Amino acid sequence: MTDPQHRSPPPLQGFLRARFARDHYLGLPLTTGALAVLSTLLLFALIAYEVSTHGALTRLDQQLADWFNRHAFSPLTEAVLGYTHLHGTIGVLAMGALLLWHMLRGQQWHWAANLLLVLPGGMLFNFALKHVFARLRPSFEDPILVLHSYSFPSGHTIGATLLYAVLAAYLLNQPALTAGIAARLHTGARGAAVAIVGGALLLVALTAFSRVYLGAHFLSDVLGAMLLGTAWFAFWTTVVFTARRHYSALPRSN
Question: Where are the transmembrane segments (predicted)?
């Protein structure tokens, strides 16, 4: 007779326990990554549905766009223009190239592969989606910017989301860099982590704000881009590092 204390757990319970195991490559990191991808994609789908059906969110889009166009003023407009141009395609790819060079110099091949999959890959995917939705940009009698490409999702915003998501994740996984940030801030490792994540979120939010303020995008354009960028980052980061943990756990042959 089987000892009740050594009886195997029910299949569902065993499956769930394995999904939250910290020491297995198919455990907690994969589970949290998959949940992040699914949740952000669902929210993106809701925004995309509102855009496609001209729902209530698009009415808020127009009201907010008109408000910013009426209340734009100098020198804020010039400062916002400078910031938004820094986060255009060339600017984001140039910053990404510097980060890639740092990763390659440190022989951190998995991080370099992750950056290449996330940043240029996500920006190309976003460009393709623009032509799927074919949404026109905001229009005004007295525009600050005049752009003739499609609007949804925002290319500047997804570029910033992808870049700063990878940068934040990279810094959080570099103990020496995190310790240096903590020393400069006179705080502990937790405080440094909060500063890194908060800084990344602020930079993305400023990019999104710049696009709405300048009348280049609607609110839903930048929200959709942030969600899509987060989903793309979470997907490829989960794939790359799940594979890395798997191959690291394989027995080495002599």
Answer: 25-49, 80-101, 113-133, 153-172, 193-216, 222-243
